[in-house]
Amino acid sequence: MFIPRPSIRFAFSLAVAIGVFVSRGAVFAEPAKEGQALHPAGVTFELDIQPLLTRHGCNSGPCHGKSRGQNGFALSLLGFDSDFDFSALVGEGRGRRQFTASPESSLLLRKATGQVPHGGGKRIEVGSPHYELLRQWVESGSPRTPADAPQLVKVVCEPLTQILAPNQSFQLRVFAEYSNGTRRDVTDVAAFQSNDRTYAFPSMDQAGLIVAGPIPGEAAIMARYMNNITVSRVMIPQAGEVPEAAYASLPRLNPVDDLVWKKLKLLGMLPSHPTNDATFHRRAYLRIIGRQPTPDETRAYLADSSTGKREALIDRLLERPEYADFWANKWADLLRPNPYRAGMKAVWNLDAWLRDAFRRNLPYDQFVREIVTAQGSSWRHGAAVVFRDRPDTVEIASSVSQLFLGIRLECAKCHHHPFEVWSQDDFFGFAAFFSRIGHKGQGLSPPISGGEEMIFSTPTGQLNHGRTGTPVSPRTLGGTDVTISPDDDPRVVLAHWMTSPENPHFAKVMASRVWAELMSQGLVDPVDDIRATNPASNEQLLDYLAADFREHKYDIKHLIRRIMTSYVAGLSSVPANRNLSDTRNFSRYYRQRLRAEVLLDAVNDALGTEEEFAAMAPGSRATQVWTYRTSSLFLDTFGRPDANQDPPCERTSDTTTPQILHLMNSPALNQKLSVDSARPAQLAASDLSNEQLVDEIYLWIYCRLPTTSEKQTAVEFLPGKPERRRAVEDLFWVLMNTPEFTFVD
Fold it and tell me: Is the N-terminal amide bond of 648 cis, ω within 30° of 0?
């Protein structure tokens, strides 16, 4: 129920208050139409009060915006439900939260100003513009915003981009634009957040004041007002001038290079030198097929003097059988369920389907269509296991949107997404595409779910809105409701929309994912969280990769080839003078610890040993293991996902103390080093001289020949042939306990 227009006395007091706000650079400013008020109702709840609650964090997650509120007072998170919030302020608390007869006595004002105990502390000062706005709203009877009031259309910020020197600042202004053409300065009631406070951050002392950090880089500053978001990009270039010729002379092997150089030019950075052949050779093997090259392969590559040998290397690796196992292992992190939940046979079937898809180089759009529209037996149709593992409609919707669109809708299930445009209506509209999935057979009954289950499409099915309880029609994200006949599978309609060339999300998230796998650092971080408030470090590059991926019919091998044959992919990881602080713009290669499976395989390859895995054939590699339930202390220590964790599982490449101690002290590793059939014992007993033996060890561990000083030190360490076995074992152990072995460089 809306409150009538306030009295003339209140209108006069409001005019005085507005004058105060303008003079202090606060809420009301810049009407687009001269002399036109935004609305005639004065201070109202939705237009004036809710933004204040968001600005001061009252409806944030740690405060009254959490699911059960705080101390008996709950608000909707970030003000997504105006009716609920108004009822909480005006209708609850026996009227004590707002007291029209004496506004200053209202708990709303007394708590906010710290006059009575308040868990959130003092949020505003008595007599401040925000205090006066709240007081006059209470005094006028706490009116709602009239239904015919101008509607908020969008929020914009000025400037959209800003270049700063280190530690410099600038004033960012935020404007709300309304349906009647009015433009309102809302800087003072907007909430600000930086995606990387290392480079730029909003000041706590002045609304909209953005302060640059001490080092060169880039940050995105998000401004939020009434669940609308706008973003300003702040750039802090490297100090000093770089001649134009320095950028013009940089090599450009394909468009990737040109787009990276353009971004570096804006930041005043220059790339590192190219890496040497041995390092690139090892990098390509580890990044494309997940294993180290043998000494013979390294020697052959180093001896090759042809100009196109790097391109030829990439092509050869993409045809190797290890390629499918390695990339299927990556996707297993995203899709593979817990076998105790979905059943051993079902999980094995899904794993086999993934490996077969990569062996056939299944186009990515077909790969996704087969998953999203999967039907059939969980024992015969591997992709259908995804729906056995995720029978809940809203759960599978969240997973699909994140994996294949780079949109994390999980937040929007309960409230408006705090950093995006997606609402509850968007979430449930998207989830409705999965409301007609049928299940027949033995369902889930952890920890034993071994039975077969049939997945199929049903002619009927309904999803109710989580907040309103009303039936929801399928709706594409950013689109309109879709009518689907009983004879059609809604998932087919969804898959067609997802994989359409007009869909801006589909190709982009896969390009982001593959770039991060090859280059150690994503253009977007996390790779599947693509939104305006989490922009790519190089938007033009991500757009190019996505377009190129589409134009080449979603060929994953082409995408890998495009990235790995760029000059950028061959840069050294050693910083230069003008890129010391760079961690996101690919002016150099970024080192990264090897995945658990790759590192274990590298240990066994170097030592000439084999790992024994339960439920796997003898001689199987770690990248071929089909379930995380296979026992391996090594894999668990180095970050294999927890078998009890629901996919998608995000691994971390961080190095931990247990990992260091495991390589140094593991009884299993020590046994491999000392067994008679292992490579250390075989090399020690061979006819190789100590000089030749050192070369061989370095080629197996580092995939390169030792430097002169390294060779001299190692040879001096090794005794004569009859007594050198223990020393050879120690040399293997020492080299395996160095970052050069455990990291891809």
Answer: yes
The helix (run of H) or strand (run of E) holding residue 229 is strand 228-236
Distance of alpha carbon 237 from alpha carbon 282, whole angstroms: 33
CA 45 – CA 549 distance, rounded (Å): 48
Edge-first strand listing for the sheet containing 376-377: 376-377, 453-457, 437-441
Place of tokens 């599982």: 649
With a pLDDT cut of 90, the percent of the chain lying above it is 64
Phi, psi for residue 64 in degrees, rounded to 5:
-75, -5
CA distance 343 to 339: 5
Please give the pLDDT value at position 442: 82
Cis upstream peptide for 447 (omega within 30°): yes
pTM of the model: 0.86
Quick: pLDDT tens for 586-645.
999 999 999 999 999 999 999 999 999 998 999 999 999 999 889 999 999 999 988 777
Q: Which of 143, 155, 7, 156 is nearest to 82 (CA)?
A: 143
**Residue 95 token pair:** 């009227």
Q: What is the pLDDT of residues 459-492, one digit of tens each?
A: 999 999 888 889 999 999 988 889 999 999 999 9
The owner of tokens 């408030």 is 533
Query: Does the N-terminal peptide bond of residue 159 adopt cis geometry, omega within 30 degrees of 0?
Result: yes
| pLDDT score of 14 | 31
Q: CA 593 to CA 286: how far, in whole Å? A: 11
Task: Name the pairing type of β-strands 169-171 and 191-194.
Answer: unpaired
Q: What amino acid is encoded at 265 in this protein? A: K
Going through 353-404 in order, the beta strands assigned E by DSSP cover: 376-377
Comma-separated ranges of CATH 2.60.40.10 domains in the chain = 152-236
* AA letter at 145: T
Answer yes or no: are the C-beta atoms of 697 and 731 closer than 8 Å: yes
Q: Which residue from 505, 559, 555 is spatially nearest to 530, judged by alpha carbons? A: 505
Residue type for position 518 = L
Cα–Cα distance, 383 to 328 (Å, whole number): 13
pLDDT below 50 — which residues of the chain?
1-40
Q: Rounded to whole angstroms, how far apart are CA atoms 275 and 702?
A: 15
Beta bridge partners of 377: 454
CATH superfamily of 152-236: Immunoglobulins (2.60.40.10)
571: left (phi over 0), alpha (psi -120 to 50) or beta: beta
| Percentage with pLDDT > 70 across the chain | 93
**CA 620 – CA 643 distance, rounded (Å):** 20
Locate all alpha helices (DSSP H) within 554-613, ordered by sequence. Answer: 556-564, 596-607
Q: Which two tokens stand for residue 455?
A: 């997945």
**Residue 25, amino acid:** G
Round to whole Å and give the CA distance between 214 and 164.
11
Residue 9 pLDDT: 33
What 3-state class would DSSP assign to 314? helix
Q: Distance (Å, rounded) from C-alpha 60 to C-alpha 351? A: 42
Distance CA 346, CA 511 (A): 29
Side chain identity, residue 177:
E
pLDDT tens digits for 66-89?
777 777 788 887 777 888 888 888
Per the DSSP assignment, residues forming a β-bridge with 209 are: 171
Spatial separation of the C-alpha atoms in residues 699 and 305, rounded to whole Å: 19
Closest C-alpha among 283, 277, 259 to residue 536 = 259
Determine how many CB atoms are found less than 10 A away from the CB of residue 9. Answer: 10
Quick check: helix, strand or coil at residue 143? coil
Q: Rounded to an integer, what distance in angstroms lies between the CA atom of residue 135 and that of residue 31? A: 24
What pLDDT is recorded for position 94?
A: 64
**Token digits of residue 342:** 């979905």
Tell the residue number behind the tokens 């689109």, with chain if given: 479
Alpha helices in 506-595 (DSSP H): 506-519, 539-551, 556-564
If you count DSSP H runs as helices and E runs as strands, how many of each does the chain have, helices first?
30, 17
Contact 155, 229 (CB under 8 A): yes
**How far is residue 203's CA from residue 48's CA, in Å, rounded to a whole number?**
23
